[in-house]
Amino acid sequence: MNEGRRGSLRLLLIVQLTQNIRGGIISPILALFIRGHGLSVSQIGFLGIAGMLGWFIFEPLSGVVADRIRKKYMIIFAIVSSTVIYASYPMASSIWHFAVLAFFMSSVMSAYAVSVKAMTAELLPESDRGRTYGRYLSAISMGGVVAPFIGGWVSANFGYTLPFYISASVGLVSLALVLLMRYDDKAPENSKPLEESAKGEKLMTKPFISILVVRMIFMFNLLFRQNFLPIYLNESPNYQASETEIGAFMTVVRVTSALSQAVLGDLNDRFGSEIMIVGGVGLLGLSYLVMGYGSGDAILYALAGVQGILMAAANMSMMIHLMAIMPEGRTGMVMGLYSEAENVGGIVASPALGVIYDSVGPLASLYTVTAILVLDAVLTMILIRRKAERSRDAAHEVQPVPQ
What are the distances in angstroms from CA 368 to CA 123, 229, 240, 286, 292? Predict the structure, then answer.
């Protein structure tokens, strides 16, 4: 890797670190802030649809655009726009205000998410990718380690408005870093159509579709944690967690995730992504079962530590597996479709979990996530085969047909 690419990778790392800080500050209080305006949990669940629609509509489009223009410009646009949206949240007062903000935020962040993922895949070295990516993620995660605690503490002592303005200000730091990047990521003008890569390989292969399905189902976990888990911890008689305690819970999750990612990257290189995905997803589902039966701060923070490791294992392994099977020359489109699978899962998960939470009960929503994650682990074992098996199949497919 030349010095220009190495320097750009470092700057990209710091950009994501600062973005984790701004998102982490808001994460423990956003659902509670919206809840404080009189919305029910079901309404918050349907609000999630507005957010997911932005991702759903614009991430595949961002993938197409990212293969044709400089991804750096798309990142700049996303940072500037999201800064304005963060600063607008304190002025919202109704479900329609929150729906519009959620839609705009996810729409502009589609450009950021797809561009950053594609640039990361382009800049990472091919050898020992798991090890390098693990250390890369570990450094990025440190940006959000203390941010949830800060967000919870600031909101508990100064109200819900100040954290949004702090997050908006942090965005200006990441903007300056993007402007310093020297990597020329502009795609060649002779880009191939959707179904083919630069080498003529098909994009929609069985391994690619399989990881899309696994990722789509995993979104039930991510949407539950974003929209409902803070409310559950706050209102559950077993925990009755304050904003500060919820922030501390999320901080522990991020700490264990950050500290474990370097080791998890090495384990990916040694044992393969399939085993890591199955273990991370399945055990994460069972941890929610323990959360439903447990009570008290000790259990809560112990679960936070375990869940941080398991989510890191699942998220990292899915991305490493995707990088291993994706065709060259279409990184933007690949990441756009991968993100679209997340959007489809989120559109289904958010309202479904909200309705279950309100109509059946908080524990029912918790155990629903448990069942879905266990199912996802089983599907991973069925759909995602080991790299050696795929290589043998590929070698068989390219053998010339006897004349």
Answer: 38, 13, 21, 11, 11
Residues 6+ apart with CB under 8 A from 10: none
**DSSP 8-class letter at 398:** T
pTM of the model: 0.70
Smallest CA-to-CA distance from 83 within 148, 178, 183 is with 178
Q: Which residue has the higher pLDDT, 369 or 320?
A: 369
Closest by CA position to 14, among listed 120, 121, 154: 120
* 95 alpha-carbon distance from chain centroid: 25
CA–CA distance, 31 with 163 (Å, rounded to integer): 13
Radius of gyration in angstroms for the set of CA atoms belonging to the chain, rounded to a whole number: 21
| Amino acid 182: pLDDT | 74
Those residues with Cβ within 8 angstroms of residue 16's Cβ, 6 or more apart along the chain or in another chain: 116, 140, 143
Q: What would the pLDDT profile of 186-225 be if each residue is shown by its tens digit?
A: 554 444 444 444 444 566 788 889 999 999 999 999 989 9
Domains defined for the chain, CATH in brackets: 3-183+201-397 (1.20.1250.20)
**Whether 181 contacts 79, CB under 8 Å:** no
- What are 337's two structure tokens? 């479709």
Give which of 216, 31, 68, 242 is closest to 149, Cα–Cα.
242
